[in-house]
Amino acid sequence: GNSVTQMEGPVTLSEEAFLTINCTYTATGYPSLFWYVQYPGEGLQLLLKATKADDKGSNKGFEATYRKETTSFHLEKGSVQVSDSAVYFCALFNTGTASKLTFGTGTRLQVTL
Amino acid sequence: DTGVSQDPRHKITKRGQNVTFRCDPISEHNRLYWYRQTLGQGPEFLTYFQNEAQLEKSRLLSDRFSAERPKGSFSTLEIQRTEQGDSAMYLCASSSTSARDTQYFGPGTRLTVL
Question: Is a pLDDT exceeding 70 seen at residue A97?
Answer without folding.
Answer: no
